[in-house]
Amino acid sequence: MTMTLTINGAEHRVDAEPDTPLLYVLRDDLGLNGAKYGCGLGQCGACTVHVDGRPVFSCLTPVAAVQGRRVTTVEGLGSPGNLGPLQQAFEQEQAAQCGYCIAGMIMRAQALLDRGGPISDADIRNHMQTNLCRCGTHMRILRAVRRAVDATGARTSSLEAKP
Amino acid sequence: MTPLRTAAALAALAVAGLAGFAVVAWKPEIAPIRRPAAGDFTPDEVRRGATLATLGDCAVCHTAEDGVIYAGGRPLATPFGTLYATNITPDEATGIGRWSKDAFKRAMRDGVARDGSHLYPALPYDHYTHVTDGDLDALYAYLMTRPAVSAKAPENSLIPPLGFRPLLAGWKLLFLETGGIAPDPAQSDAWNRGRYLVEGLGHCGSCHTPRNLAGAEMRSKAFAGGVAEGWNAPPLDGSNAAARGWTADTLYAYLRTGLSPRQGAAAGPMEPVVHGLSTAPEEDVRAIATYIGSVMGLKAPAQPTPVSPPVDRAAEAAREHPNGAALFAGACAGCHGDGAPMVAQGRPPLSHVDAVQADDPRNAVQAILQGLKPSSGGAGPYMPPFRDNLTDAQVAQIAAYVRTRFSEKPAWPKLADAVAEAKREGSPQ
């Protein structure tokens, strides 16, 4: 069936079965290859995107469930020439080894930044719990999130506010 | 009597009544002490206290989400408002560091704080009142040797006039039965130990027994099922048909691991209970299973009833709930579908899960919204939350589909309302 999806602020028409995971539509139909397929069971977080501003596992989100809702992927946070604060921080901390988990990590962390208010290191650890990295760059990932939190200050950034 | 005299007599009665109530309600302060030193207790006593604290689930309420253990601050939503668990570390200013052993015992048994103020029965002193002297000594030794943490719980926010604590004296007059539990010589040692733990420190009835309008457990309906934090605590008595599938052995395994291949997984407020019991002494967990088994009316030794074949009416469910079928296929089937790895690992099919067969959809809906989360650092059944993936209407469609496909019982009515209610009740305060 044909559906209209709003992804990173733009409308896309896609033709897919309603039970297709959002992740497959993003990658296979729309060429948004940031989100990754890790476990397919909602246990690793590599596929994390935002739906209506909240982080979800796109591997467990049927595409029919997001019609009429706002989807944001890592591509929506910035471009190679104009990186968002988290993307910059991950680069500066060299937080990626193989990089497979990073798009999910960044989307998960973005939800924490969006929450605003004071964010402690314990908050970061707790918030990032759902996302796994098998290379073991967790400490760098935590540093990168800390850096982005500090760089954005107490600003409650909202995804909609971005161009 | 003239009206004036009647009024005077009534006023006198009221004054006498108030005075009488004040006498009942007033409790003396117990003098503060200097904080005991670790050397005041024997290591054996502290160790025993640690085990008892685990069996009593003290840390579950007295630790805030991601907070320091026993430092309090966790909100407890009740029909009467929100209470905050207090700091029970031995900090002198904000914890119980200046409480003598007598003050501690009075709090546990009579629900009165060291300063003489009445405590709310969210502290289940209606159960803790049954705990023996020796066990309270050990608990005191354990708590007093924890690291002191300075933390003050937020103020309670209760509906007026319940913030006025002397009223609790009236509640206690009506509902608090103090005293220990005499062993029943006709029963086994394990049964008696189990009853002592279940009725005392374990305070199982706090969730599994329905409460009256004043928030007290209805003793005539012990273990007939209650509600806790937006989840149904299933009946543990013979009224629960699902209870007939249990044996003392499967109960033991469930209490230890949070998983029963025939009933499903521990979820919601039961999850931290199971996490605690996973580290408790085996014989104590066996004793709890023995006693709960007898409450359920299981015959010992129970002959396990054969496992019924799974119900799976996929075609009918898809016809009745096409949207639910598509959503289930995309969101749930990866774990709960035919041939999914989880099912192949011996996890129960959805038709064996109590929440799917229950008369009301509350727990099924809560499981979809909140998922199943092992305690921090604990291992246990896991399910991701779908609160943000799915709209309320989509959650209702999935629940309706699951009920039709995996149960032969009637459809759940008013599912949309149930989802809205579950979201309200289950959201963190």
In a nutshell, what does this entry contain?
The complex is a heterodimer of chains A (163) and B (429). Chain A is α+β, with helices and mostly antiparallel strands.
Rg of chain B (C-alpha, Å): 24 Å
Query: How would the global form of chain A be characterised?
Result: globular
Query: Which superfamily, in CATH terms, is the homologous superfamily of the largest domain in chain A?
Result: Beta-grasp domain
Total beta-strand segments of chain A: 5
Please give the share of residues in helix of chain B. Answer: 40-55%
- As residue ranges, the low-confidence spans of chain A are 154-163
**By helix and strand content of chain A, what is the structural category?**
alpha+beta
Largest β-sheet summary of chain A: 5 strands, mixed
Judging by the overall fold, what is the CATH architecture of the largest domain in chain A?
Roll
Task: Give a description of the structure.
The complex is a heterodimer of chains A (163) and B (429). Chain A is of the alpha+beta class. In chain A, 32% of the residues lie in helices and 14% in strands. Chain A folds into two domains: 76 residues, Ubiquitin-like (UB roll) (Roll); 72 residues, Orthogonal Bundle (DNA polymerase, domain 1), CATH 1.10.150.120. Chain A is built from five helices and five strands; from the N terminus they run ββαβββαααα. A five-stranded mixed β-sheet of chain A has the order 2-1-5-3-4, with helices on both faces. In chain A, β1 and β2 form a beta hairpin. Chain A is globular and about 45 Å long. Chain B has three domains: 158 residues, no CATH class; 108 residues, Cytochrome Bc1 Complex, Chain D, domain 2 (Orthogonal Bundle), CATH 1.10.760; 113 residues, Cytochrome Bc1 Complex, Chain D, domain 2 (Orthogonal Bundle), CATH 1.10.760. In chain B, β1 and β2 form a beta hairpin. Chain B is globular and about 75 Å long. Chain B has a three-stranded antiparallel β-sheet, with no helix packed on it. With 429 residues, chain B is mainly α. Chain B contains 20 helices and seven strands. In chain B, 44% of the residues lie in helices and 5% in strands. Classes of the chains: A alpha+beta (163), B mainly alpha (429). Chain A: It comes from Azospirillum rugosum. Chain A: Pfam families: Fer2 (PF00111), Fer2_2 (PF01799). Chain A: Keywords: 2Fe-2S, Iron, Iron-sulfur, Metal-binding, Oxidoreductase.
